[in-house]
Design brief:
- Helices cover 40% and strands 16% of the residues.
- It has ten helices and 13 strands.
């Protein structure tokens, strides 16, 4: 297949990775995916899919058996606030993700990979810049002095520096983006690792009209959320550009978590009350600053949050109904 470009997607069994495999195939790439598991919701069109553990250096060395044109390193031990901010998973999060990145940076350079993309996170930004829910500061140059709000964020910051050091010392061609709450269909929607949009859609889908849903804290903490298709467009532009990054990939449409819950109710056509309960919250305010990505790549999100929530709610409500049917059949 001499006319193909070759891509490797690490974490292909996950939410963003699965969507990325589909996008790359549509663009004509030969794609190899690797993950600990198959994708939960789709049969991926990858040309080759390997079940393997990227914490194992032998696995990393073996999958990099050619000088791939593009490697996308999305694999990580991660989840939503209920997983990241309790502190119960800190050692695993740091050890597992750092091991993956230490292996992938080293063996990608050894294999002569032409370009590698690393997915960092907005969680690496200093907590002290995210205390005001109405005015968070998350421009790319605000990363230092470093003070991430979680061990997940510290590992992301470490791995950014790891890849950049391989670029400086060994010429590894690196691209880095900091994701801000990517959401959409075919992502984790239950079990504790789901992120806010999926959790809200699930709670609303499960609730009867006139009932209530639970929201952690007072619901006045702010976030922005970016639909998966928008994310992939930004990633592909970054990888095909001459800009290394790091660069934010997110939306500037900041909403409170209470408002996110209301949007889920609106798209569902349900009237529900919100019960605020104690729970892990993370920082008080977070929003993507898109000045740099607009300047370097000419990219900005093309649709409002509600459009993405409509698509996501439709998919999650279908999963809820399937789960109910399966429970009744048992």
């Amino acid at each position: 297949m001499p006319n193909h470009k070759y891509a490797l997607v690490c974490g292909a069994g996950g939410f963003i990775g699965g969507h990325l495999v589909k996008r790359l195939k549509k663009e004509g790439f030969w794609v190899r995916g690797i993950d600990l598991k198959q994708h939960d919701y789709s049969k991926l069109p990858a040309d080759d899919f390997i079940i393997g553990d990227l914490r194992d250096p032998v696995i990393c060395k073996n999958i990099l058996d050619k000088p791939f044109d593009q490697v996308y390193q999305l694999a990580a031990d991660m989840g939503g606030a209920g997983y990241i901010f309790t502190g119960e998973h800190d050692a695993d999060v740091m050890h597992n993700s750092a091991s993956i990145n230490l292996n992938m940076s080293y063996y990608s350079q050894k294999a002569g990979v032409k370009k590698i993309f690393y997915s960092s996170s907005a969680c690496m930004y200093p907590a002290y810049n995210q205390e005001d829910p109405d005015n968070p500061k998350l421009s790319e140059d605000s990363a230092y002095p470093a003070a991430p709000d979680s061990e997940y964020g510290w590992e992301k910051l470490f791995s950014e520096r790891l890849y950049l050091s391989f670029q400086r010392n060994y010429g590894l061609n690196v691209r880095i983006a900091r994701f801000h709450n990517i959401f959409g269909p075919e992502g984790t929607w239950t079990g504790g690792r789901e992120k806010s949009p999926a959790a809200m859609c699930r709670k609303v889908a499960e609730a009867k009209d006139g009932g209530e849903i639970e929201v952690w804290g007072d619901g006045k903490q702010t976030r922005s959320f970016l639909y998966i298709d928008e994310c992939l467009e930004a990633v592909r532009r970054l990888v095909d550009s001459d800009f290394t990054g790091p660069v934010n990939i997110g939306s500037e449409e900041m909403v409170t978590i209470n408002r996110l819950a209301e949007i889920a109710m609106e798209v569902a056509g349900k009237k529900l009350s919100i019960k605020h309960i104690p729970g892990p919250l993370g920082v008080r305010g977070r929003n993507s600053d898109n000045h740099l990505i607009k300047q370097k790549l000419g990219w900005a999100p093309s649709q409002p949050l509600k459009v993405g929530m409509e698509k996501t709610y439709k998919w999650i409500s279908e999963q809820v109904e399937k789960a109910k049917a399966a429970a009744l059949a048992r």
